[in-house]
Amino acid sequence: MIGSFSAMSVIIPDDILRASNLTEDELKLEIAILLYQQGKISSGKVRAWTGITVIEFQHELAKRGLYINYDVEDFQSDVRTLQSMGLL
Fold it and tell me: What is the pTM of this model?
């Protein structure tokens, strides 16, 4: 069904959370960035799930020595879009 979604709950034991020295929000961000780095979710999904802004997301990537996933296809698509808008 379009527009519907399901949610899955994952239980992380308190001792794991304590051992990680992370808050729940920090752990969620770490998981989201790992999934992004592996190409499993988009930057938009990371931001929507974690509630961070584009700038905060870029800062979090930079802290980890990571970069926005942007390949030749993305570049070519952006060029076509700019051309269609008469900006290039």
Answer: 0.70
Over the chain (88 residues), the average pLDDT of each successive run of 10 is: 70 90 93 93 89 91 87 79 87
7 located within any domain: no
For the chain, the domain total comes to 1
Rg (CA), the chain: 17
State the DSSP code for 38: T
Do 81 and 50 contact (CB within 8 A), yes or no? no
In a domain, 9, yes or no: no
How many angstroms separate the CA atoms of 26 and 59, rounded?
Answer: 14
Cα separation of 33 and 61, whole Å?
A: 8
Cα(28)–Cα(61) distance, rounded to whole angstroms? 14
Tokens linked to 30? 């770490």
Cα 79–chain centre separation: 24
